[in-house]
Amino acid sequence: MSLTSKVESFTSTVFNPGVRAVTSTGFLPLSKSSKKYEDDPEVAIVAVQTTFEGYKYNGIEQAKEVAKKYEIDIPIGQSSSRKERSKLMANYRTGGTPWVIIIDKRGIVRFNDFHIHPKYAGNLIAELKEEQREE
């Protein structure tokens, strides 16, 4: 069973901490979102590091350190290595980092773009939860 079938909304943030935009526009909104939905069983938020450069300093351990620094208490994953290109980046055609993907309970991608304003993300997640209640 996939994670998306268990929750109303699945939000994934793709990041590479070596990219300046990630630290300035990615981690703080991600931290706020993770706190907002931490007790909401209808929403799952994960972060996936998609290293495409700087493999020496962009491993899973560094990702965990960044999560701790920004108080992001969500599952953190790694998609890519020096030997293998990120399948997540290829499958969702991400164009950089931070990249946000919001998937509804049916597995339909509802948002897939560079950065999302926290207010818009919150509104979209609320809409998705309401749609599910109406079904």
Average predicted local confidence, pLDDT: 75
Number of strands: 5
Shape: globular
Biggest β-sheet strands, sense, barrel: 5 strands, mixed
CATH class: Alpha Beta
The CATH architecture is 3-Layer(aba) Sandwich
Classified in CATH, the superfamily is: Glutaredoxin
Please write the string of helix (H) and strand (E) elements. Answer: EHEHEHEEH
Instruction: Kindly identify the CATH topology.
Output: Glutaredoxin
Query: If you compute it from the alpha carbons, what radius of gyration comes out, rounded to the nearest whole angstrom?
Result: 14 Å
Distance between the termini: 20 Å
Main sheet: strand order: 3-2-1-4-5
Helix content: 25-40%
State the low-pLDDT regions, or none: 1-12
Strand residue content: 15-25%
Please identify the structural class as seen in this structure. alpha/beta
Q: How many domains make up the coordinates?
A: 1
Quick overview:
This protein is of the alpha/beta class and 135 residues long. The chain is 37% helix and 21% strand.
Descriptive labels:
single chain, alpha/beta, Glutaredoxin, five-stranded mixed β-sheet, 4 helices, globular, disordered N terminus
Secondary structure topology:
Layout: E1 9-15, H1 20-36, E2 43-49, H2 60-69, E3 76-78, H3 87-92, E4 99-104, E5 109-114, H4 118-134
Parallel strand pairs: 1-2, 2-3
Antiparallel strand pairs: 1-4, 4-5
